[in-house]
Amino acid sequence: MTAAPRLRVLAAMSGGVDSAVAAARAAEAGHDVTGVHLALSANPQSFRTGARGCCTIEDSRDARRAADIIGIPFYVWDLAERFRADVVDDFIAEYRAGRTPNPCLRCNEKIKFAALLDKALALGFDAVCTGHYARVVLRPDGRRELHRASDHAKDQSYVLGVLDERQLAHSLFPLGDTVTTKEEIRAEAERRGLAVARKPDSHDICFIADGDTRGFLARHLGSEPGDILDQDGTRIGSHDGAHGFTVGQRKGLRIGRPAPDGRPRYVLDISPVENTVTVGPAEALDITALTAVRPRWCGAPPAGPGSYTAQLRAHGEEHPATAEAAGDALHVRFERPVRGVAPGQAVVLYDGSRVVGSATIAATHRPVPADR
Predict the structure, then answer these.
(1) Helix 213-221 crosses helix 89-96 at what angle (to 10 degrees)?
(2) Deepest in the core among 18, 109, 160, 172, taking most CB within 10 A?
(3) Is the pLDDT of residue 241 over 90?
(4) In-domain check, residue 216
(5) How many independent structural domains does the chain possess?
(6) What single-letter DSSP state applies at residue 55?
């Protein structure tokens, strides 16, 4: 059997346990590994500190200590300006337009596998290594495919669905091929002497320091009072800014009086032009189809309509669907209605475990009422 080639690998080290173990595995596999931590804020103290975040001064120190234990060179690269423009400003603009973006997916697309990868290749590296749970599969014809992690419970291929074939050719995901629990990853980190072994996972949005997304948006978009409407257009409440809501939201509506049927209501639609938020019962969230834009394919685009499964959230279930690409649009129709899908989210198509591609949801289509 031919030995795998020795690569020059740039390991993106966030300061967490997954990226540290991924870097250690890459080095153990015989690759020439260099660690790098991305400084994504001009003021790192404005990002989360302690157990809840990433991208902090504390995280850069944790990453450096891990690199020292692994025995690899380590650097900190300042990508704060690029991150602000491509991720933070995009996040604010999407909410201003009444959409619900996924900043982690955008960070992978614009930062880790664009800005970082391009810089790595320019410096002579062969690949970028991260702690994502996903797999790159080499086909007999030499092309590469992105697949779900061997352990579907930890799979993160949804947020990597924006990667094209060129980027996949220069990506390593050392954690994706093994079926291990997070406790086993932590135990491996302990065996390797990595101090991050018991560090809690980061969660939520790294650039919102206090976890208050509505407050963050209010600070950047201001307060603009408007109406909360029922499905028939009746005003049933008010809000301080439509950007503080997302389709499918139930809590924090501040409607006051209950609905006539006594059931809870959910956000059905957000109109930034009229500055209104429309609410209704859960079943009104059902959609049967969607239109998405700016598709990115993990390989060749599909030829004609096909049957796939579609995932609509990072940890959501798969929905059987048919899909067809038409220029810069992707049309998806579901076998059964799905609920609570918001424009701005990503739809990722799968063929079995293979990631076909990703697109940004632009519009959703609800079932036609039976009495029409």
Answers:
(1) 80
(2) 160
(3) no
(4) no
(5) 3
(6) S
Q: 255: domain CATH number?
A: 2.30.30.280
**What is the reported pLDDT for 55?**
65
Distance CA 325, CA 331 (A): 6
- The Cα 309–Cα 317 span in angstroms is 9
Instruction: Provide the annotated binding site for ATP.
Output: 12-19, 38, 131
Q: What's the pLDDT score for residue 322?
A: 97
With the C-alpha atoms ordered 247, 251, 253, 259, is the resulting torsion angle positive or negative?
positive
Closest of 174, 192, 200, 202 to residue 68, by C-alpha: 192
pTM beyond 0.70:
yes
* Among 328, 39, 353, residue whose Cα is nearest residue 207: 39
Question: What digits encode the pLDDT tens for the residues 87-135?
Answer: 999 999 999 988 999 998 999 999 999 999 999 999 999 999 999 999 9
Give residue-wise pLDDT tens across range 158-202. 999 999 999 999 999 999 988 677 888 999 999 999 999 988 877
| Residues placed in the known binding site | 12-19, 38, 131
For every residue of 340-370, DSSP letters joined together read: ---TTSEEEEEETTEEEEEEEEEEEEPPPPT
Q: How confident is the model over 335-355, as pLDDT tens digits? A: 999 998 999 999 999 999 999
Domain boundary among 236, 265, 280: 280
> How far is the C-alpha of 60 from the C-alpha of 53, rounded, in Å?
12
Rounded Cα distance between 88 and 99, Å, is 14
Residue 208 lies inside a defined structural domain of this protein = no
In a domain, 212, yes or no: no
| 106 and 64 in a common domain | yes
In a domain, 205, yes or no: no
Q: How far apart are CA 314 and CA 157, in angstroms?
A: 8
| Parent domain of 301 | 284-365
Residue with tokens 């059905």: 268
**Domain's final residue, options 252, 280, 308:** 280
Of 332, 328, 301, nearest to 319 by C-alpha is 332
Q: Which residues are catalytic?
A: 107, 206
Rounded Cα distance between 271 and 361, Å, is 16
Handedness of CA 157, 290, 297, 37 (dihedral sign): negative
